[in-house]
């Protein structure tokens, strides 16, 4: 009896230790630093909320998440359905899609810059074909709208494979008998997609959405490499406050805001996207 009670705890112990050391302790340190020091936490957060840059960073962080995540999810589902059909040469497509998983966000940002720079690959191609007379500028404060869309394209290319892998794994776990039964009853492809595949993919979609949303609020490398503070984001302002301004307390306040937002989003996802068939049909 004692053995049966201790085994589950022993199995989850490595995960608990990992979460405590690499997530719990840094989070506790951020909260402790934000609420300590000569000035009160109230004054720190008051200064933060009165900062125009904070609201700009929050706006752009939310805007990037709202634009990028739905596109990534839709594209990942479409690619997963294509690869799961197992047409001739699908393994090659799988490898091509998975390549960005090996790249860091800084590397992806540098690659995008070499493409969209004034004398980058894109401008050179357009100039050589005579389609433009002068280079198109994508970077700089005057072109921050173009910068924004370059960041969106880069993030979609860099991070969609992560969502794709999760969705593909969910697709491959669906019992084929459901689809065979749907064929017998004369379901169309659209009916099978919306009445069988997507409902059964709900746990995978929830996991992918949750993970991708949390990463979206931590977006930093790509934005910092391509736009700097032209397009401020919360994680970028955290770095700027800590490294450039040597203000760890304000940096911790930014970190607390990111943690609170991601916690709220996690709770919302868990309540709204929870699969009922995994709850015993409640």
Order of helices and strands: HHHHHHHHHHHHH
The number of domains: 2
Instruction: State the low-pLDDT regions, or none.
Output: 277-282
> What is the name of the CATH topology of the largest domain?
MetI-like fold
Name the CATH homologous superfamily of the largest domain.
MetI-like
Per CATH, the class of the largest domain reads Mainly Alpha
- Count of individual beta strands: 0
CATH architecture of the largest domain: Orthogonal Bundle
Structural class: mainly alpha
Return the average pLDDT rounded to an integer: 86
State the oligomer.
single chain
What do these coordinates show?
With 282 residues, this protein is mostly helical. The protein has two domains: 1-34, no CATH class; 40-281, MetI-like (MetI-like fold, Orthogonal Bundle), CATH 1.10.3720. 75% of the residues lie in helices and 0% in strands. The chain has 13 helices and no strands. The longest helix is centred in the N-terminal third of the chain and has 33 residues, at 2-34.
Structural features:
flat; MetI-like fold; 282 residues; mainly alpha
